[in-house]
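Hey, resending since the last one bounced:
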Amino acid sequence: MSKLIACCGLDCSKCDARTATMKNDDVLRDKVAKLWSELNGVEITMEMINCEGCNVEGLKTPFCESMCEIRKCALGKGFVTCGECDSFETCEKLSMITGNNGEALNNLREWVPIGKSQEENVYEAAEIVSTMMVTGIL
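The structure tokens again:
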């Protein structure tokens, strides 16, 4: 799984703020700032649109850096993404993203934390298949 998957499951590689940063595109920065200002009801300037991704070293927007409650929660628990949390599927904070974005939810469901052994992954997969068989899904 890519390091460009944010804590919430969004794919940072598809984010216009990251694209504007990586291409140093001030026209796109301005467009993103105006859109995000309108969507969030706060003033966001194009100077704030500098981000290299939620889970990579480097620049972050002010929101992603210090105000995102989802990111604060995941990092506070020592997680790379919310997909490592046992309750991510029912989390109210996270549902603001995953409730409207099936791709983000799938990214979290597919997340394999770095450092898990192959044995742990196989064991978890076997548990999932077993549950699916018992419930009649398979």
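The first helix runs from residue 16 to 23.

Sorry for the duplicate.
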